[in-house]
Amino acid sequence: MQAVCRKATEDDVDVLVDLIAGYAEKGIMLPRSREVLKRQIQTFVVAEVGREVVGCGSLTQLGADLVEIRSLGISEGYKGLGIGSKLVDQLIIEAREQNIPKIMALTYEVRFFEKNGFTVVNKEIFPEKVWTDCVHCPKQDRCDEIAVLKMLN
Q: Which of 10, 17, 87, 100 makes an SS bond possible with 57, Cβ 3.0 to 4.6 Å?
């Protein structure tokens, strides 16, 4: 079972809506509406096995030198096969192509990110994130996500 990563297209929006909604229902990912996904589709990469999209992730620029990995998810039945790491690798390539030196994520899957070269950091070092997204989050005062960072040199 070989997964291939590629840039997402508008044809992927319905699959992304369903994939992200599954995680959002569990409270481990922020929901994304169809309209938001259509507007932000150029920020997404997907993983395919055969012709089936089985994973996704996106990059959001938070500052001149910082991007965030968002909406990283894998379909049930495809977890634990290295597809998440392939998506992260592709997102790192995208960040490097944009000459962004730092890539971060807020996660519950710390070990996964550490395995992919990220380090746990204090989330308060990312005022760009705190003031653009966290101020609107219902978990703002009781956030239980862990911040991770990878320097791209």
A: 87
